[in-house]
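Retro notes - structure team

What went well: the batch runner handled both jobs without manual restarts.
What didn't: labels got mixed up in the shared folder, which is why I'm recording both outputs here explicitly, each with its sequence directly above its tokens.

Job 1
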Amino acid sequence: MLVFFLNCLCITVYIGHSLVTDRESQNNISLTGESGSGNKDIVRQLLNQKTLIRMALVRNVHALMNDMVKMKQSMAANDVRLRDAEEQIVNLKHGVKTLKSENQHFKEQATKFQQTVNNFIKKFGDLDRNFTQDSNSRLEFERKWNSNSGACDRDISGQLDDIKAEVRNLSLSLRGLEKRTLELEKSIPILLNNKVTILSGRLNKSLDNLSGSLSASSRKSEQLLLNISTVADHLDSIRRIMKDNLNKTLHGLKAEVEQSQKEQQKLSSAVASLEIFKQNMSLTSYGKSSHVGFTVGLTSTSSSWSYSTLQIVSLFPHVVFNNGYNPHTGIFTSPTAGTYVFYVNVNVQGGNFIYLDIVLNGSSKVSTMSHNSARYMTGTNMAVFQLSKGDSVWVKRYDWKSYYSHSVPITTFSGFLL
């Protein structure tokens, strides 16, 4: 093609105007003219014109080659930009997949949170049933109470209703949170798909413009570069918009998760308060049922105790307070199951000695020692027992000589229910 173009150019130059003299060439020039010197001048002139034409053609060819090299470089740069744009599209798709996985994770967390709430609701149901059973078991006792017990029951019912209302409000809040999460999960993929569609359309349009510009001419390369710059600006703006939207969405989700955690903490606090309230009610019911305990003692001094059955069971006939102790047999019988504390104090008379045991159902558990190394030695001990209803506790004289006491008892035996 280049050779054909050069030949055509040479023919045109020889037929048309001269590039150097700008005169019409003579068609009737002959190398065998009238004058030999004239012919030589003409030939020399033609050779000069040919040389100039060749130099002009070489310059033009070099300029064309340079333009072609520049066009190839521009096309290579455009290819690089296109590859970058494709990589950005792949990265955006990867970001969309990541957001979908995060949304799935949030959905799983919401499901777990809902299950936890359901468990709390189930526990509240169990607590309600337990309260109902406790109420049924206390019916016999509540009939003996005065009008104040009715007011107390109404207060308790009001507090339970308030707690149930708070639980229901928390459940409604959790349902609203779950609905909001589902809406966000639906809106985020739609937004991302719209942005990707817009971006793809703009890229396709830019690619079409780029192909038309490359196929048209080299003068449209600048326009192509401008279009690519515009596409890059659009990509940057879209990336910023998507990043801002994603950040806002993530911040919103984090805020809602934190709010749900706070509500869960409130729910846990409500459960803890309910359990404490139940324990208080249990303690109150125990306190209302009976104040089990006793303090008994001896109000006289004795130098010896007889070897009768009292060797097995020591009697403490003087009663300071009594609810469960039999002063005639010297035995305490537990009216209800629970944890009990027992304490014995004995003061020996003069320089004698005495040893006492605290006995549970016939088995000695702890002992006191009032030694005769000094006068009026005191022996004490304490025991904590887990008793069942009907268990018996008493004080046994293990070895003795005498004891000392006073009208206000010094030698005593005490016990009470925790």
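Job 2
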Amino acid sequence: MEKIALFVLFTSSFLVVDSDCQADFKKCSLKCAEAHVSSKTMKESSCPQTAYVFPRKSATDFIRVKYPMAPIDDFSVCTWIKIYGSGIFTGTLLSYATVEDSNELVIIYQGNHDEQVIAKSEFGNRKHKLKRGVQNHLCYTFQRSAGTVNIYHDGTFQAKMNYKKKNKIPAGGTFLIGQEQDSPAGSFVVDQAIHGEIRNYMAWNRVLTAAEITKMYQSKCYCAPGHILSLLPEYIQLSGAVNGINVADECN
């Protein structure tokens, strides 16, 4: 079987992938994502315009990043999210689990309007003010050396969480969006599923500045430089009823 080298966003090295897997992900037991992506997404000067809908509350509906991560030191993640349905929003924006710790890095919304950020099984909580039926812009920045997480909503700083543990998040874990893992890629529950849509979900291996975050909120056509992850179809697999949705190309 022919092997080819691909440069993987999460690492500074090369990963060898079977050419058959590129041509047909089903041969690797993967489901190929079918998102409608802007024709400009491959240009470094533009943002990857991606969007996915989670049409129901289901333990089977999530997005999985296919490629392994390098160890996480400083880290930022941002996304637009539109919440469907009624009542108190619950759902998981990020779950990164390893065999050693299922709560290496978690962003989850629980009952009673609780926003919970977990780093190395250390919990931080606050009340959130996300709105249903509209696009909310969220950013989280993790600074390992300081043991802090900063939270931004709609381009504005909201809160800082402090953590005692300052170890790097290790490589080799499972990265999911839409479900929280009590074991790697498993032990899912309905209440922790997302019911809504996410757009332009991206991550960086550095702490974004407040100015960069504000600018991304003000313009979906701007991305802070150096992202290591976007939800382009070739980097993810979809589970359950999650589907790519058409995104108008507003960045021409």
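One thing worth noting from job 2: The chain has one domain: 31-244.
We'll revisit the folder naming next retro.
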